[in-house]
Task: structure prediction
Amino acid sequence: MKPTSTARIYRPTRRNLATLANVLARGGLVAAPTETVYGLAADALNAKACRAIFRAKGRPADDPLIVHVDTLAQAEAIAEWNEAARLVAKAFWPGPLTLVLPKKPGVPGIVTSGLPSVAVRMPAHRLFRQLIRLSGCPLAAPSANPFGYVSPTTAEHVRDHLGRRIGHILDGGASKIGLESTIIDLRDTAHPALLRPGAISKEGLERVLGLTVSAHGRTVPTKARAIAPGMLERHYSPRTPLILSPALSPELIGRVPANEALLFIRKPERVPPFKNVFWLARSGGSLSEAAHNLFDRLRSLDTGGWRSIHAELAAGDDPLVAAINDRLSRAAAKG
Ligand code: AMP
Ligand code: MG
Result:
C-alpha cells in the first residue's frame, strides 16, 4: 500500500502555473517536469527555500544543486562564463546539459555546498521554463525523489515518494528523455571533464569543443562524501537487489527462478510465456525509448515483489549506452 499523499497534483493550466510560480517566488517548493526527470524546485537565490529541498529529499547538505535558468542573462548572473561554456551552450541549450562553472557572489552557499563553483542548466521543457519566467527566479532543482532512490519521470512517481513531504506537484506527463542531464565541468577550459553521462554524449561535446573531454574520477565510494550525488557509486537504486548481466541471454528465460525478474534492454525476438520477463524498449526499438522507460520500469519492478532483478547492460555505439549503463551500474551498486 502506498502511503497517503497530501500533495496536490496540478494540471498545467495558465492559472495553475501562476499559482505555482507564486509559491516559488514566496520561497516554497514545487515539483515540476523537465525533459530529463521531474525536479523539486525552489528559488535558487533563497537559502531558506533551498534548505527545504534538502530536508524534503533527505539529501546530505554537501551535495550541491543544479540551478535552472530561462535566459543566458540569468545564467551569466550566477556563473563566470568562458568561451568553452559559450560554445557548448550555443550547441546544446536549451537541453539536457549542465555546466559547472566558477560561481558568482549571490548564489547561496547551500546551493553549491560551499563550493566556489555552480552547476547551471537551461532546460528544454516549456512548463519548467514558464515557472522560471513567471516566478522571476532561477530555480535550484534536484530530482524530486528521496535521496538515493530511483529518479521520478512522472507526477505520480513524485507523489508516491514525496507526497507527504511536499505540497505541490505540476503534472506535465512523462519526462521525454528519462535520464538526468549530462554534466560537464568547464572551470578549466583547457581540461573539460565529464561529471555525469547523459543524453548529450561525451563525443558530441568533444566535437563542439575541439578538445578531449576526460571522464576520470567520476565515481567515488559512497562512504567518502562525493562533491555531488551523481558521482556516488550507489544511486538511483531500487530496494530490490539489481544484478547486472553484461550478456543477459534469452536462453535464461525459464531457467531462473520464477520470483526473479529478467530485464532486457529490448524485447527479445521470441519470448516464451514467462511472467518474469521485462524489457525497456520494443524489439528493434531505440535506446531513447529504453532510456525513457528505465526509471519507470525499475520502480514498477521494485514494487512487484521480486526477489531480485537481473538486468542487461546496453551495448553498441549509440551515445546513450554510457548514460544508461551508468544509471544501471549505480542502481546495482551495493551501498
Ligand atoms: P541532481 O541534482 O541529483 O541531478 O545532481 C546534481 C549534480 O550536479 C551532481 O551529481 C553533481 O555532479 C553536479 N553538481 C552540482 N553542483 C556542482 C558543483 N558546484 N560542482 C561540481 N558538480 C556539481
Ligand atoms: Mg538525483
About this structure: DSSP finds ten helices and 14 strands in the chain. The chain has two domains: 8-209, 242-332. The CA atoms of residues 2 and 23 lie 27 Å apart. Residues 64-66, 100, 112, 115, 117-119, 142-143, 180, 183, 195-196, 227-231 surround adenosine monophosphate (ligand 1) (CB under 6 Å).
